[in-house]
Amino acid sequence: MSAVSQASAAARLRPLVVAGLAIGVAAVVSACAVPPAPRQAGPAPRAVGELHPCPAEVADGSRCVAGRDSSGAYYWLVVPPAWNGVLVVHAHGGPVLGEPKASRPAEDVKRWSVWSRAGYAYAGSGFRQGGVAVTAAAEDTERVRRLFVDAFGMPRLTLLHGQSWGAGVAAKAAERYAGPSTRRPAYDGVLLTSGVLGGGSRSYDFRLDLRVVYQAVCANHPLPQEPAYPLWQGLPPGSALTRDELTRRVDQCTGVRQKREARTAEQQRRLDTLTRVVRIPESSLIGHLAWATWHFQDIVFERLGGANPFDNHAVRYEGSADDAALNVAVARYRADPAVRAAFAADADLTGRIGVPVLTLHAIDDPTAFVELESAFRATMVQGGSADRLVQVFSADREHSYLADAEYVAAMAALLAWVERGDKPTPASVAARCERVDARFEPTRGCRIRPDYTPAPLAMRVPAR
């Protein structure tokens, strides 16, 4: 097919898709992959998806495309029937370990159906690889944006949304594709929710603290009869430990899965030591310990050649019944500076973002501490982007999902900032949330706290 014929075919495709005709959208795009000039220079990917029945959760009458991109990442695209012309590109949390699965972006479409119900188009990638690979995930996020453009044409505006670990991915993508010096930024604004925004070199320090304090208190991960290994490894390659077995060990030591009255006095003492020293709620103990096991294993052996990026050699742990004894008992490790720098190069942020950024975070988030927002603000200040950051906090105790109304209000505030220059304040986002259409979960209400400012991260996690 000639270049002229390809361009003609692509031009004919877009109005047919927008009209919702049931043609072989992705098949045509795949055969004639000639996208409009992207706003970020670089080759556009080849679309390989097909029209797919939309999940019941998205807006009625939406059109969905699902597939696997040229780098192996599964993805979903959604266009609602009354599209406002704005695309939301989503970077999901996690990260998931192992090979990519089609189920991950399919689940994200359902979880974040609020975007299509609010009139936004949606594009989400499952990422081409599992594990803690931030830069690669940022590249996959940009690729799914281009796939959307291939299939549906250039949106009026494009907003980037990152959730949890995906907030760091989205921030990395914004730095790469919407930096201050980018001539034609790929994104017009960024919304980061429940973000793990301290970068790899700071966000995971407390999980090393958890590993060493847990082992000093419980001595069963590893068990005395199991081969010893440095805890910063997470888990040695080839280990047969399962999540169920780790859960059993944690419960045996602390009684965390039992009601308080069913625990022994010794179990309660151990649990109190862990939650007070590491400053995590007991409900998230097993989850954080699992992260510090298998995700640390991924970081060390899949990303860093088996070397150590984590350090606690000078940390003093406080909050136990006998801090002196605890600090003698915990294992101490020094990071390899070159390895820590390599990890930071992939997983840390520079704060050089050239478009408006709005963050939304629960004050009592049990997974991504709200104090990470202080670290992110410091990063944005250092990167010269402080005037492009607004941070909003809600009186929630959740991490994975807050309330539809809060997300819709935050995105609408970001859109007004992008379109009209109306920079929001926490108070204006709170007021907007109260005005949101009643169809967005009115029973849950709006819990935004305009007066809240998070403490420095060092108040929660000892600085290295």
Give structural notes.
With 464 residues, the protein is an alpha/beta fold. It is built from 16 helices and nine strands. It has a nine-stranded mixed sheet, sandwiched between helices.
Topology diagram in text:
Blueprint: H1 3-19, H2 25-31, E1 50-52, E2 63-68, E3 74-79, E4 86-91, H3 103-111, H4 114-117, E5 121-125, H5 134-152, E6 157-163, H6 165-177, E7 189-193, H7 200-203, H8 205-218, H9 243-254, H10 265-278, H11 285-303, H12 323-329, H13 337-347, E8 357-362, H14 372-382, E9 389-394, H15 404-420, H16 426-435
Parallel strand pairs: 4-5, 4-6, 6-7, 7-8, 8-9
Antiparallel strand pairs: 1-2, 2-3, 3-5
Helix pairs in contact: 5-6, 8-10, 8-11, 15-16
Concise overview:
The protein has helices spanning 3-19, 25-31, 103-111, 114-117, 134-152, 165-177, 200-203, 205-218, 243-254, 265-278, 285-303, 323-329, 337-347, 372-382, 404-420, 426-435, and strands spanning 50-52, 63-68, 74-79, 86-91, 121-125, 157-163, 189-193, 357-362, 389-394. With 464 residues, the chain is α/β, with parallel strands linked by helices.
